[in-house]
Amino acid sequence: MDSPRIEPQLSDSGHAPPLLALAGVERRYGAFRPALAALDLAVPRGQFLVVQGPGGSGKSVLLRLVAGLERPSAGSVRIAGEDLARLRARALAHLRRSIGYLPPGGGLLSGRSVLENVALAPWAAGSGREDGIRRARAALSLVGIDADRDAQTRCADLSSGERQCVALARALVNRPALLVLDDLLAPLDNVTADRVLRVIAQFCDAGVGVVASQRTDAASSAPLLAPWPARARQMRLHDGVLSP
């Protein structure tokens, strides 16, 4: 795979805004308690942010907002200064090509092959068929999947850890400016987790911003022992409120 690089439309400069900025963000669903409340957050280029919290704390809602899949009920979500809620559908779709999103469970097409699942991302972004396949093979190799041996394997036949690696390859394949990784480590063993985190750290070194989530025990307030790199900034989300 080519060296990780920032997409041109999100190129950095000395006076550039944060890669990701949330201001006063609230997300409500009907009359229920807000899933997110008065949330402020800034993620500069090259930062690795881990959002930790128990199930139902709002982590997935937050990551869907960051990925441009939902709009906030109040406040703003900006990527490289662009307010996602103000973008027309075509402009938002263009911007989202610079976001690599790994949804809960990976979101793979079980009946499709490993190679097809990853190549679908560059194809959707306008790559030719052969270029998409080449990039998919390189991305799979990057996360430890043997593209020559496993390319035609159906995703339904993989282990949960292998599926997660394929989903990560799909998130990486378009060389994103921002990686949004929901519950990245949940299905991974320690060896695989260490390998994929080293890959993600390489993207951070190139200026890519990362927002990852981790599910925690709701009853515990002790610091978590997880194989996150030393550079990772860790924050907690509880009842829709974010804190250090």
Describe the structure.
The protein has 244 residues and is an alpha/beta fold. Helices cover 30% and strands 22% of the residues. A six-stranded mixed beta sheet has the order 6-7-8-3-9-10, with helices on both faces. A four-stranded antiparallel beta sheet has the order 2-1-4-5, covered by helices on one side. Helix 3 packs across helix 4 and helix 4 crosses helix 6 (160-172). The longest helix has 16 residues, at 190-205.
| Cα end-to-end separation | 35 Å
Proportion of β residues? 15-25%
* Largest sheet, spatial ordering of strands: 6-7-8-3-9-10
Broad structural category: alpha/beta
Give the % helix.
Answer: 25-40%
| Low-pLDDT stretches | 1-13
Helical segment count: 7
Write the H/E string, N to C: EEEHEEHEHHHHEHEEE
Roughly what is the average pLDDT, rounded to an integer? 89
Shape: globular
Largest sheet: 6 strands, mixed
Rg estimate, integer Å: 17 Å
Beta-strand segment tally = 10
List keywords for this structure.
244 residues, four-stranded antiparallel beta sheet, 10 strands, alpha/beta, disordered N terminus, globular, 7 helices, six-stranded mixed beta sheet
Compact description:
This protein is of the alpha/beta class and 244 residues long. The protein has seven helices and ten strands.
Task: Give the SSE layout.
Elements: E1 20-27, E2 36-43, E3 48-53, H1 59-66, E4 74-79, E5 82-83, H2 89-96, E6 99-102, H3 114-124, H4 129-142, H5 147-150, H6 160-172, E7 178-181, H7 190-205, E8 209-215, E9 233-238, E10 241-243
Parallel strand pairs: 3-8, 3-9, 6-7, 7-8
Antiparallel strand pairs: 1-2, 1-4, 4-5, 9-10
